[in-house]
Write a structure and sequence with these properties.
Blueprint (H helix, E strand, L loop, with lengths): L2 E6 L7 H14 L4 E5 L25 H10 L10 E6 L8 E7 L8 H7 L2 H7 L2 H15 L2 E5 L6 H9 L3 E6 L3 H19 L9 E6 L8 H14 L1 H5 L8 H8 L14 H4 L8 H13 L5 H5 L8 H10 L6 H15 L3 H16 L3 H19 L4 H16 L3 H19 L4 H16 L3 H19 L4 H16 L3 H19 L4 H16 L3 H4 L2 H13 L4 H16 L3 H19 L4 H16 L3 H19 L4 H16 L3 H22 L6 H14 L2
Helix pairs in contact: 1-12, 6-7, 14-15, 14-16, 16-17, 17-18, 18-19, 19-20, 20-21, 21-22, 22-23, 23-24, 24-26, 26-27, 27-28, 28-29, 29-30, 30-31, 31-32, 31-33, 32-33
Length: 705
């Protein structure tokens, strides 16, 4: 099964390219078809490891940067013309052994290289030249022609890094050193990449992340080295939990995969796997051989690397995991593999975990019906095996409820969230971060269904727990601040919400840098509040920055981009720039329909906003059918008593009155006022749109006598 693997480090000089080149050679030694690609365009160096073996005559204008320029000019550009075949040979064996692999260098030898790098625009490539489709085609072709494709990624937070860590890979090798900046930066990028995968237009399963501690020397400062190892084992545990068998600890795998610092190999661009032992644990070749065992086995050799006496993993479970890594998932193949796994595993913890993995894979690919089916099975099995009040049951309830909420089945999701929260409190205690997660999940659902009075204390409690658990400057705290501020904004407590939005923005800019999609979300939230307080001059420069960051992060057709465009168009409408706003609103509707289908609540929002612009510009006859369609979608999604339905009713009633059809509009506005009043009474506050609906009711009543 083919795998694309990105090697990423937050800082340079940590041995990332050294690891990639040597691991590529070892994969070729195993008879695998291997392609190595240099995507570190600003600081390339992969080809230097193979210069002694390169054939003369390879064109200097062939490489990654030239390929990208070709694709920008012609979408059918063929990457194969940029591939150079390399045959390496061992230095320490007699007779010598030869291994062949393929390399796409950066193209740095070309005299126009620096200019090519400067003039290539990722934003333009994605927006104007269908860059996303081109990369997806190449990705499919690479996976058909090679067993392993290893990508050497740019360091730091860059467009190239985002392509290599989010869009392209199946696995991520996270290379870092015992240095705060190197480790914390790499950890942040890995978490960010996982989040970014969920928002891609193309379905991708979660990344499998292999931490690779590099240039590590514990020969002198043993106690200090052990302190760092303990920190790494603790902070990297979520990544190890994805693939390390339960009996084993992250520290055990760290010990097996740390790359020792050897002075000799810090000079030049060496390939120690060709010149030195692969079994001597004091040399890097031993570590690289261990990494190859993990990658070549889809991590199923992890247990046997730590304990060689451990029996091999059962094949059926491995086949299931292999199937769900593909997109789209082949359900016939999955069903056969899962049946075999049930026979081998029985009805126990391993099968429970496997069912959850399958459900998560379908959810990540937005196949909610299939995800619901497997999460339901996992929940039933967890209740039987672990008991109805166990932590696995809480996890299954949260997973199941998230799918139901996504498809608008709120009344079914809510009791699951309540039950999951109760189990988490009982299992971990009331101040645990898992309790904060449960509180947040439930509060989000309550907010979506208009029950703000119930949701607010849950958001506040989740914030307090996260501040206590992670400290006041952690990105998880920023998420809690955004959630609470959003609720306060819903109920018109804007003065309380603003400092929370500003604090969340400051935390995320410090944590991720100014061009991260989390920063764009914070800017979007703050700009929305500034609009609502009529501070349009402050809000306006924020929105283009939001859209620019989202397009760089996700590509031009992603629903997150649509949300940023929608808010920019709203501001343009409020400042009477209707001609500029209309094409943006139409693009928003198009993206939402393409992403979610024609009956999703986000489509209703886009339709309502486009209709509002047409209404404002006097094209009321064009606005009416859009308002009606938005109303129908919200009634179907939320039920007839939701405040969103009342908003749609108000807009439709107003346009009918202005079309001299007040008799039709009266029952609509009466119903809207009733929904707002009942919602406010239930939640203990006056709904902010009630006064507007009552004003329209009075106008329409007068019109009909």
């Amino acid at each position: 099964m083919s795998r694309i693997i990105t090697f990423y480090s937050y800082k340079g000089g940590v041995g990332r390219t050294l690891a990639l080149a040597n691991i590529g050679v070892l994969l070729a030694k195993r008879g695998k078809k291997v392609l190595l690609m240099d995507w570190d365009l600003e600081a390339p160096g992969l080809d230097r490891y193979f210069r002694p073996y390169l054939e003369e005559g390879f064109p200097v204008n062939k490489g990654s940067i030239h390929l990208l320029h070709e694709a920008a000019a012609n979408a059918s550009a063929d990457w194969r013309s940029h591939v150079q075949s390399v045959t390496v040979k061992t230095d320490n064996l007699s007779p010598q052994e030869f291994y062949t692999l393929s390399v796409i260098p950066s193209g740095v030898a070309a005299p126009d290289y620096a200019n090519k790098v400067r003039t290539f625009s990722w934003a333009h490539f994605f927006e104007e030249q269908e860059g996303g489709s081109i990369l997806e085609r190449w990705r499919d072709e690479w996976k058909k022609e090679y067993d392993f494709v290893l990508l050497d990624s740019r360091t730091g937070i860059t467009d190239t890094g985002g392509v290599c860590t989010i869009l392209l890979p199946d696995f991520l090798v996270l290379v870092f050193t015992a240095n705060d900046q190197s480790f914390e930066g790499a950890l942040g990028i890995a978490n960010s990449a996982q989040l970014g995968r969920r928002h891609l237009d193309v379905p991708r399963p979660p990344l499998t992340v292999l931490p690779l501690l590099s240039r590590f020397d514990r020969r002198d400062e043993i106690s200090l080295a052990d302190t760092w190892l303990q920190r790494f084992a603790r902070d990297l545990k979520p990544f190890y939990d994805d693939w390390l068998p339960k009996p084993f600890l992250p520290m055990q795998m760290l010990e097996k995969t740390k790359v020792p610092y050897i002075t000799r190999f810090s000079f030049g661009e060496p390939l120690p796997v060709l010149s030195h032992s692969l079994t001597d644990q004091e040399l890097p070749g031993s570590t690289f051989e261990t990494v190859v065992r993990l990658l070549a086995s889809d991590f199923h050799e992890a247990g046997r690397i730590i304990d060689p006496m451990l029996p091999e993993e059962q094949n059926a479970a491995a086949r299931v995991r292999g199937v769900i890594q593909q997109a789209p998932i082949n359900e016939r193949e999955l069903h056969a593999a899962l049946q075999a796994a049930e026979i081998e595993l029985g009805s126990g913890q391993e099968l429970y975990e496997l069912l959850n993995e399958v459900g998560q894979a379908f959810r990540d690919q937005r196949h909610y019906e299939e995800a619901e089916r497997y999460f339901r099975r996992a929940l039933a099995l967890a209740e039987t095996v672990f008991g109805p009040s166990s932590s696995p049951v809480s996890i299954s309830l949260d997973n199941f409820a998230s799918v139901l909420q996504e498809i608008g089945r709120f009344s079914e999701a809510e009791p699951m969230y309540w039950r999951a929260l109760a189990i988490a409190e009982q299992t971990f205690g009331p101040e645990h971060p898992k309790v904060a997660t449960g509180l947040n999940n439930l509060a989000v659902l309550l907010r979506v269904t208009g029950r703000h009075t119930e949701a607010e204390p849950m958001f506040r409690r989740a914030l307090a727990i996260n501040e206590q658990s992670y400290g006041p400057e952690h990105p998880t705290v920023a998420t809690s601040l955004n959630n609470l501020a959003g609720l306060l904004r819903d109920i018109n407590r804007l003065a309380e919400a603003e400092p929370m939005y500003r604090r969340a923005l400051a935390i995320d800019e410090k944590s991720y840098g100014p061009e991260h999609h989390e920063v764009a979300i914070d800017l979007n939230n703050l700009a929305g509040l500034l609009r609502e307080t009529n501070r349009l001059a402050e809000a306006e420069p924020m929105y283009p920055r939001v859209v620019q960051i989202f397009e760089k992060s996700y590509g031009p057709e992603h629903p997150t981009v649509a949300k940023g465009l929608n808010n920019l168009a709203e501001l343009l409408r409020e400042t009477n720039r209707l001609e500029e706003a209309e094409p943006m609103f139409r693009r928003v509707v198009h993206i939402f329909e393409k992403s979610y289908g024609p009956e999703h609540p986000e489509v209703a929002t886009g339709l309502n906003n486009l209709a509002g612009l047409l209404d404002t510009s006097g094209r009321k006859g064009e606005a009416e059918p859009l308002y009606r369609r938005a109303l129908a979608i919200n009634e179907q999604s939320y039920g007839p008593e939701h405040p969103s339905v009342a908003l749609r009713l108000t807009n439709l009633a107003a346009v009918l009155h202005e079309l001299n059809r007040s008799g039709e509009s009266l029952p609509l506005i009466q119903r809207a006022v009733g929904i707002f009043q009942r919602s406010g009474e239930q939640q203990g506050y006056v709904h902010p749109h009630l006064a507007d609906a009552q004003e329209w009711l009075e106008i329409i009543q007068k019109a009909v006598g």
